[in-house]
């Protein structure tokens, strides 16, 4: 079942804290940094000579975020547009082979728990010296991507630079400013450029699933699960990141060495299963309409459409990292959901592979071979990222189960309104139900579960220790 990041606002109650602590112990999640790694994190960075602090960059992140990987500035360039995208230069702080470098290879990526996060880098770096915080001068890998009037990439360049963000913005505030027409041009262009890139995504067959996310908020001394539908600004911002990741992939493929994020095309059987699901949910899917076009026409607030969107996420499973070097290009170099070559390079504070992708791109633009420490790490990087991704996926799934169980533990026996969003093909009496309120998605047992239909369900299990929530049809 597809899961979403889930966060708690405020301090969680004791049973929830205990269950999450036990989960961290069970999974062997790293806790304190070794003293040697913390000492390394205090070292001053290697600063670039190029000064780009005159560019009025801004960041867009959740309000409470302090590990800011990216900052942007958007402008018109002749009949087209210019995207300046600064990525935190983690390599300016992390010495290859140091205790800190070894610790990042052990952690691989930041892990997000409802009550805390376990960062890839010590907070003194990830939330301090390396973070693109407003009004602070920082080293960065600064991308300059020029687009034509339709949003297509004309040229891409990246170089090390000193940058200075001017403002820390959040999605809701950005959406309000753009909708009200009060946004200054660099921010107003986010809608223009993001919209053009979304149109290009449709044209090439790319897919962006607009699936609501689960959130936990503190309310009236307790906690409440809610759904958050992504805003248009979320999608526009994501398009700038995708644009940069696609530019990075093209650079690496052109120069013969790199690390790509790849996803094979879904097998015909999987698409056929989705067509059967669409029929069961009374969704009209004419044969001449592509899967990508259908997905974009759906309304996540419609229960039938929401159920189908949940099923669509099954086609996005199986993504991985593909490493290549010395001109030996991989057989599969594209990401099926992006419908183009793509690389993770925009979140180096939170994901290990991005530091290496940035170094390869910087070397490619400079006409140089990647550093030896990068080449030496490529052999094991793919496996490290795969293992780190599996651990992060387990954390996310188990955390959602624990939080749901903790919040419903005193409501066993109650009846709720819900919608069946998944039914197992081999066991049609087992499926997944999405409640309307609270925002819970859990297993359901019952005869002939009506996929996509509303029904009344009874909570029969909610045990934070077992990390499971189960329902039965009424």
- Taking all Cα atoms into account, the compactness measure Rg is 23 Å
The coarse overall form would be globular
* Biggest β-sheet description: 5 strands, mixed
Oligomer description:
single chain
> Strand order across the biggest sheet?
1-7-6-3-2
Q: Mean pLDDT, nearest integer?
A: 90
Strand content: 15-25%
Number of strands: 16
Poorly predicted regions: none
Order of helices and strands: HHEEEHEEHEEHHEEHEHHHEHHEEEEE
Helix content: 25-40%
* Measured distance between first and last alpha carbons: 23 Å
What's the number of helices?
A: 12
Structural class: alpha+beta
Structural notes for this entry:
There is one protein chain. This protein is of the alpha+beta class and 474 residues long. It contains twelve helices and 16 strands. The model has no long low-confidence stretch (mean pLDDT 90). The strands form five sheets. The protein has a five-stranded mixed beta sheet with strand order 1-7-6-3-2, with helices on both faces.
Identify the notable features of this structure and list them briefly:
alpha+beta, five-stranded mixed β-sheet, five-stranded mixed barrel, 474 residues
């Amino acid at each position: 079942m597809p899961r979403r990041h889930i966060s708690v606002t405020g301090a969680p109650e004791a049973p929830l804290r205990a269950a999450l602590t036990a989960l961290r112990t069970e999974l062997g999640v790293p806790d304190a940094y070794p003293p040697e790694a913390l000492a390394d994190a205090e070292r001053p960075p290697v600063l670039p000579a190029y000064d780009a602090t005159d560019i009025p960059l801004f960041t867009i992140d959740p309000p409470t975020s302090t590990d800011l990987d990216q900052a942007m500035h958007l402008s018109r360039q002749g009949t087209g547009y210019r995207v300046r995208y600064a990525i935190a230069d983690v390599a300016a702080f992390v010495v290859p082979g140091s205790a800190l470098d070894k610790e990042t290879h052990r952690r691989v990526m930041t892990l997000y728990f409802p009550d805390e996060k376990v960062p890839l880098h010590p907070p003194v770096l990830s939330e301090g010296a390396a973070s693109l915080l407003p009004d602070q001068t920082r080293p960065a890998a600064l991308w300059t991507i020029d687009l034509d009037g339709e949003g297509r990439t004309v040229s891409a360049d990246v170089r090390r630079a000193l940058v200075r963000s001017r403002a820390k913005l959040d999605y809701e505030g950005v959406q309000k400013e753009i909708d009200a027409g009060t946004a200054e041009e660099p921010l107003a262009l986010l809608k223009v450029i993001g919209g053009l890139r979304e149109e290009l995504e449709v044209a090439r067959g790319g897919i962006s699933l607009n699936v609501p996310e689960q959130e936990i908020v503190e309310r009236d001394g307790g906690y409440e699960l809610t759904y958050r539908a992504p805003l248009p600004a979320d999608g526009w911002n994501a398009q700038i990141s995708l644009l940069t990741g696609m530019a990075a992939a093209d650079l690496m493929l052109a120069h013969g060495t790199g690390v790509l994020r790849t996803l094979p095309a879904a097998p015909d059987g999987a698409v056929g299963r989705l067509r059967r699901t669409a029929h069961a949910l009374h969704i009209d899917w004419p044969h001449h309409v592509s899967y990508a076009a259908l997905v974009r026409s759906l309304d996540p607030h419609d229960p039938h459409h929401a159920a189908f969107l949940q099923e669509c996420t099954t086609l996005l499973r199986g993504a991985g990292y593909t490493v290549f070097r010395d001109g030996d290009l991989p057989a599969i170099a594209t990401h099926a959901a992006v419908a183009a070559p793509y690389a993770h390079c925009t979140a180096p504070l939170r994901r290990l592979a991005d530091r290496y992708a940035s170094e390869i791109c910087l070397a490619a633009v400079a006409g140089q071979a990647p550093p030896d420490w990068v080449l030496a790490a490529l052999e094991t990087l793919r496996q490290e990222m795969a293992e780190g991704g599996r651990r992060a996926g387990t954390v996310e799934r188990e955390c959602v189960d624990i939080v749901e169980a903790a919040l419903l533990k005193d409501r066993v026996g109650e009846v709720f309104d819900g919608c069946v969003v998944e039914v197992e093909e081999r066991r049609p009496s087992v499926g997944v139900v999405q409640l309307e309120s609270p925002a819970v998605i859990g297993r359901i047992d019952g005869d002939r579960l009506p996929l996509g239909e509303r029904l009344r369900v009874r909570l029969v299990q909610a045990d934070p220790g077992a990390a499971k929530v189960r329902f039965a049809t009424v």
